[in-house]
Task: structure prediction
Amino acid sequence: MINILVETVKDLAITSGLYNLSWQQGVMLLISLVLMYLAIAKGYEPLLLLPIAFGMMLTNLPLAELYHPELFAGTELNIIEVVKKGGLVDFLYLGVKLGIFPPLIFLGIGCMTDFGPLIANPKSFLLGAAAQFGIFGAFLGTMALSPLLGYTYAEAGAISIIGGADGPTAIFVTGKLASHLLGPIAIAAYSYMALVPIIQPPIMKVLTTKEERGIVMGQLREVSKRERIIFPILVTLIVSLLVPSAAILVGMLMLGNLLRESGVVDRLVKTAQNELMNIITICLGISVGATATAANFLSPKTLGIIAIGLTAFAIGTASGVLFGKLMCKLSGGKINPLIGSAGVSAVPMAARVSQKVASDENPHNFLLMHAMGPNVAGVIGSAVAAGVLISVFG
Amino acid sequence: MDWGYIISITIIGTLVVFSALILLVLFVQTMGIISTKSSNKDKKDNDAPTEKSSANIATGQNPAKAQNISSVANDDIDSEIVAVITAAISQMRMSKGNKTSFRVKNITRASNSRPIWGLAGIQENTRAF
Result:
């Protein structure tokens, strides 16, 4: 009798998660708890970081087997296998793997974005382009580290997109080029986006003079409704004709904006920017977090991604500010170079940082709307850069 | 690892991003110029009758004695804005029991002026830092 009892307890203990917990899974559970703390207590991009961290916790629970990476291994995706063996997390992950969730997030972002400052001052596009040096600088950096960490070209392309400071774009590109790195890349991208107010100001201050930071820019012209309606159609056509692989990202962003500006589909706008966006955010967060298994995450490559991501942000900020300085010189001192740093996307945080640094110099200087131009141009710029990387390495 | 390939990808990628966005600058700038011209034309067509009626409100006087709206507003201030300011002054005077007629002689835009609600919004949005 006692023997049976002991055997039963022993069997239960052996099949428990605690008994089967490896040290790698323990570390991953700790990391997920730290990320949850950062999202909840510090407010670091909580909308995505919280579901990502929770997805990370779920996927690393021993014996739970919520996510099956083997179903998505290899170049060909076997949907029938996913249907037969997959569970909730595997099905949600299809939305990332097939590139469905990021464009839908872009639809919602388009509904929420006012491109007015960019239309009023189209030269801001150049600052959005300059900040993309962060992406290509990071690509060079990743390849330089390749002999040490063994990054492939496709992996380098996926890692470098962190420099675009655009979460959905980073997830979209990584899902296409190096889906096994999805967890570390998404976490690095969102963490650094949350740290924009800490990373950017020192770089901005080092690269500009007190006089440049104090430049007060003239008020932007009023943009007509006709221009606001033509703009999304124009951007979709031009970008998609030049870089077809960016069509889905830019197209959905601009569709969202056209819905908003047309003024005739309020119900669709409300759904896209609220319910749809929130549902997709939950699904995206859980599935991206679930890819961060111990085997994928605890590797030297992750450390490389974290270091390269920070460098990419710094290069993007610096190149935006330096290009802003060039435009300041060419315009006879009419452009405040601080708006250049907003070209790294991270909407609207990067624009708010430009405003904050400028108002530290002169409390009556309001750069926010001027910085929103390069900020939203950065979203378009990083989508174009993403298209280039996918067409080359995809 | 082929550094020639890596550098050429970097250069081509940067060039594609810049050329796409430069094209957008050109198209959006052209659109802005066309739109500004057409709205200026519309404004000119609409201004004549509006000026007359707004001037009447602005002075609160006989139309024959009305001051021209362009001399009231020095900068590019819409006649509707002049009418709104005048109405606000009139309302304030009436609420204090002052029913005598008045004349708005001059309205000048303060340099770098910003609506107080816009200012409050910006302060609210940047308070986190």
